[in-house]
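Materials and Methods. Structural model of Amidinotransferase. The 97-residue sequence of Amidinotransferase from Pseudonocardia oroxyli was retrieved and submitted for structure prediction as follows.
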Amino acid sequence: MVSPELLLWFPEAFEPDSRSLIRALGLELVEVAESDARRFALNLVSDERTVTMTDRAPRVAALLRARGLTVVELPTAQLAKGGGGVRCTALTLHPAP
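The predicted structure was written out as tokens:
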């Protein structure tokens, strides 16, 4: 997810019923190529204006920039060796109620 209206996804990662549910959400769905998904392109962090993501998926970065978002690409080759991506290094904090 990048913004409340935009969802990047790799549909083949989901069962058919789950794909149908996701499509029914009414979001702008942007399909990411399998090669980018395998490079952890969807393992990102966003505040709806800035996206922090791997530097290993330039097509996805270009797609996000074309939508007016600021994209910060980080080297993640070593992190990927352990099976992780940018999102795995982030802690999301929400304001107290």
